[in-house]
Structures are given as C-alpha cells and as structure tokens.
Inverse folding.
C-alpha cells in the first residue's frame, strides 16, 4: 500500500540538491557583482509587524500573509525586503556615514505572488542605495542591474525605464483626465485608455499627444519623439524629465530603453522606476526605482534607490535559454574499516586541504 | 516563447465561436495559415511567409497561453477576459464575434425583471465571477451554480431559477423556452498580448 505523505502547503516548494546548485549559481553571480560595487549584505527578520508593511505599501500589505501574535498583535511575513530595510535604516542607522550600500538575498511571502503561477514563497535578490538624491546614483543602480543580469548569463534582456515626474507633470497639466488615463494604463487596458480619450473633452492635438505618448519606446529616437510631442504642448514642462532620460540613455548604449506606456507596479516610487524583462520569460524578472519618501514614513527623511529581482524567474529564464549549469562534483570515495579509519581520515583531510572532494565509501 | 528564432510571433487562436472571425481578421492583415485546422487534427500551424505560428486552443485557454508567454498575442472574447482578469495587455476591440452576456429565465415564469427573483435564488452559469459581480451590484442574494456547458438545461430541470449565459442570436434561448430579462455585458473579440512580448515585439504586434 502506498503511503500518503503530507504535502507542502500550496505555493511552497522544496529545492533538491541539483536545483540548489543552479539557484546558488544565480545568487552568487549577482552577489559577486553587488560586492564588486561595494555593497554589503544585510538581513532582516521574516516575521514582522503588520504595521511596518502597511506603512510602506498598501498593495504589498494586501497580499501579505498575516498572523496573530501571542498577545493578539497583528504580525505578517515580509512581502518584500525594501520595506524592512527602510525600517531598520530609520531605526538604527540614522547616524551612519552615508551613502549606505546594502544587498540582500531572502525569501518573501505573498498570496498571489504573481498571477500565472501559484508560488507564494519566492527568493528576492536586490540592492538598496540609501542617502543619495536623484542623479548619478540612479545610474549606479541601473549599472549594477545590467551587470548582474549579464553576469548571471542572460542572453538578451531589456531594462525599461520611466519616471514618475513625467506622470506628475501630466497630472498637473491635464488634471482629472490624466488620472483616469493613468489608471487604464496601469491595468494595461488600451481599449479603456482609447475610449476614455475619445470621450474626453480634450482638443484634437491633445488627444493625438496622448495617443503618441504611450507608444514611445526605445532609445534616442524615442527621446526625439518625446521632444517633438512636447513642442506641440509647450506648457507641459517635460524638459527635466527629457534631460534625465538623455543622461541615462547616453550611458547605457544597450539593454536600456525608455517605455512611456509603463506604469509602476508599486505605489512608493518617487523618481525613476524600471523593470527588467527577457524574451525567454513571459513576465518581468524584477523591478526597482527611487523611493525618496519611503524611509521617511519610518521617521528618517532620506532618499534611496534600489531594485529587486526574483531569483526563481531568472533561473527559469536561463533554463529556457538552455543554459548549462555546472553539475555536482562527486567526491572521491575511500574504503575504510574500524582498523584503518584513522589513516583514512588523515588521507581525507589531506585531500580536503588541497580542495579535493573526498568522503568515505559507505 | 520557445523556438523564438524560428517564429516572429505566436498567436493563440480560439476554437469555436470566434474561430472563423479570427481567421478572417488575421487574413485581412495578411496572415494566412496554410492548414485550416478545423478540418484536421493539427493544433499548431504556420504562416511561413510571415514566420508566424498559430496555436489552436480552447476559448477558455487563450488567456492562459498569452499570460504565460507561450503565445505572444491571442484573440479572446471580452466576456472571458472580464471573467478571468489575466495579466495581459488589452490591445483592441476587433469588432467581431459580438454577443451578450444575459440573465435569462423560463418564458412562463413570473420573473420579469431582476428584482422579481426570489431571495436565495439559484443562478446557473459558466461565468461565476461575472455572475457574482452582477448579483453583488444588484444587491441580490443568489447562489451561483457553476456549469461547464448546456447551461440552458438548468432552469428546465429545476436546477436553477435563472441562468447567466452568452447569447449571440438568441435562438438557443428560444428553443429552450427561455427569455432574457437583463443584459449584463456586451462582448466582442479582443486582441490581447503578453506584457513582455509587447515590449520586445511592439511594432509587429501594433501592426496586427
């Protein structure tokens, strides 16, 4: 009779040794890049106060696992690492010399981590650069993301960027209608977008402006298009955001593009926001951006920028690209009995010293 | 997205109601698949000239293929899109495959409007999410019974008081002595795209 084994809860998984080897490869290639750029590891607890989470982002706290503590307090499992790191920065690192450069590798827990799969427990790998305002620190962040993805062995990938001040300016100038259009875009619903636009009282050139704006995607050509569009509505102040995009695209000749139809998934970005995608995976590998107000919510007014990647997704993309991973290196097996065990142990330890894998033949 | 070297684009095409309209629509855009797959059992077919691959799938599964990126784009009814709410880019209304999602009851019943339905009435449907949204919006308390087909049968055998189902011509309703008392959604075929495909293949996808 076959025994019925207890299973893992929905959305969690085991990692067997050959899978861990692959996971470690991805993790180590990313960590290596972070360390070369001068970033230090940081760890925060998995169990957190629910308030910490809800203070950071409503979207995240909605999908977090909640628990009741011993005395009835509401706890949660962390749903990202940016929020806990923001908390610890405000709590313990106010006096430290800035900037702070942190990297992390850790599990996050989310109901509906993503729509296409059931996973509720995922590894996030990422960095936080804390204490520097918008400028070349954003470029450092993008540079690390690009280096990291290259080092992990991904063949073709794109980092798509946009900037929240583009939308802030659209909100200021177009008011109500811009919010409605933004909402339609964040739902990726272009039918809704076009029908709102059609029904609106905007002038014909304004309608054309919106239609063209959300199609803008690419490098220098895209900037040219944006400048041209701006010329049609001169009162719209896009000079700063255009020059920001130019600075980014000047530095990164490949793998980075602007995409103005792209709205951010998280609600705390205050500057650049971006996502990384590759053709071999139908969803983004990770995302990031600038969040100058997040740490302030925990009582310390300091700017920051960072990103996080989903380790499982990078691994899946690499496997889809048929990447070869190194295999388990089996140890040399040495026969032993109670009589010669002492000398066999000495032998093994000698092999270990010269970094050779050796074990007992059992 | 495997075999991406070979194919510029993979399109998920629904069997059934939207199938012929989809073929006509694509053909107007210059995409012609060599195998008309309704007659054969092939599930994958090609337009070699444009390097496009077509996947023949169940209407319910179009969003699944597109969401996972196994197809770059797909054609799906607005009804299914609103029922499933997949994470895809909703590109455009293709203006064919028009039909309505309606609430229907037996012709000889006393229910003339939604409000006439009894408390805790039973509604049979394939569209449980849309049905729940509807009864919530109307402030009804009704029990939704999930069926996978031949929904018209439910009121006839007393399984439910009403049904929520798609109607194109209304012939099926009439044949089963049912009458529509409220339109919930006007549906037509919609073009959707995988969000990542939409980033890498935007020009091609926009040309569809």
């Amino acid at each position: 009779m076959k025994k019925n084994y207890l299973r893992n809860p929905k959305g969690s998984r085991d990692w067997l040794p050959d899978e861990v080897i692959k996971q470690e490869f991805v993790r180590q290639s990313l960590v290596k890049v972070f360390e070369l750029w001068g970033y230090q590891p940081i760890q925060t607890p998995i169990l957190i106060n629910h308030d910490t989470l809800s203070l950071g982002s409503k979207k995240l706290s909605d999908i977090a696992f909640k628990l009741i503590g011993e005395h009835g307090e509401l706890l949660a499992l962390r749903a990202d690492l940016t929020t806990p790191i923001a908390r610890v920065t405000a709590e313990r690192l106010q006096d430290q010399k800035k900037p702070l450069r942190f990297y992390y590798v850790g599990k996050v827990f989310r109901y509906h981590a993503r729509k296409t799969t059931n996973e509720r427990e995922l590894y996030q790998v990422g960095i936080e650069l804390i204490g520097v305002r918008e400028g070349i620190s954003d470029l450092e962040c993008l540079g690390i993301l690009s280096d990291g993805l290259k080092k992990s062995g991904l063949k073709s990938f794109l980092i798509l960027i946009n900037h929240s001040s583009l939308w802030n300016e659209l909100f200021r100038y177009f008011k109500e209608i811009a919010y409605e259009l933004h909402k339609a875009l964040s739902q990726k619903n272009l039918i809704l977008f076009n029908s709102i636009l059609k029904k609106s009282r905007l002038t014909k050139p304004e309608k054309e402006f919106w239609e063209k704006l959300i199609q803008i995607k690419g490098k220098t050509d895209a900037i040219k298009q944006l400048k041209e569009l701006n010329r049609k509505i001169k009162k719209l102040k896009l000079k700063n955001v255009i020059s920001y995009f130019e600075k980014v695209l000047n530095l990164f000749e490949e793998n980075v593009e602007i995409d103005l139809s792209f709205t951010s998934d998280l609600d705390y970005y205050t500057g650049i926001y971006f996502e990384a995608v590759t053709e071999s995976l139908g969803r983004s590998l990770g995302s990031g951006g600038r969040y100058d107000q997040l740490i302030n919510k925990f009582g310390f007014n300091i700017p920051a920028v960072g990103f996080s990647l989903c380790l499982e997704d990078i691994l899946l993309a690499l496997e889809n690209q048929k990447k070869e991973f190194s295999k388990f290196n089996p140890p040399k097996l040495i026969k032993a009995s109670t009589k010669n065990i002492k000398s066999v142990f000495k032998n093994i330890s000698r092999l270990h010293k010269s970094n050779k894998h050796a074990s007992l033949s059992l | 997205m495997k075999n991406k070297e070979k194919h510029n684009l993979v399109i998920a095409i629904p069997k059934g109601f939207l199938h012929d309209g989809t073929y006509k629509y694509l053909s107007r855009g210059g995409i012609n698949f060599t195998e008309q797959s309704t007659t054969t059992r092939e599930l994958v077919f090609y337009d070699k000239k444009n390097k496009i691959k077509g996947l023949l799938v169940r209407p319910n599964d179009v969003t699944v293929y597109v969401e996972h990126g196994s197809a770059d784009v797909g054609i799906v009814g607005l009804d299914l899109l609103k029922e499933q709410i997949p994470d895809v880019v909703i590109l455009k209304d293709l203006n064919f495959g028009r039909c309505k999602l309606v609430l229907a009851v037996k012709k000889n019943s006393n229910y003339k409007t939604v409000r006439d339905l009894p408390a805790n009435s039973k509604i049979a449907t394939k569209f449980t999410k849309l049905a729940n949204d509807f009864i919530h919006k109307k402030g009804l308390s009704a029990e939704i019974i999930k069926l996978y087909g031949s929904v018209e049968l439910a009121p006839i055998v007393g399984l439910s008081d009403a049904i929520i189902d798609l109607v194109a011509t209304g012939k099926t309703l009439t044949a089963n002595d049912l009458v529509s008392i409220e339109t919930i959604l006007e549906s037509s075929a919609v073009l959707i795209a995988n969000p990542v495909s939409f980033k890498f293949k935007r020009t091609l996808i926009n040309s569809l």
Remarks:
- Chain B is about 25% helix and 30% strand.
- Chain B touches chain A at residues 1-2, 4, 67-70, 86-93, 190, 194-197, 199-200, 202, 206 (CB under 8 Å).
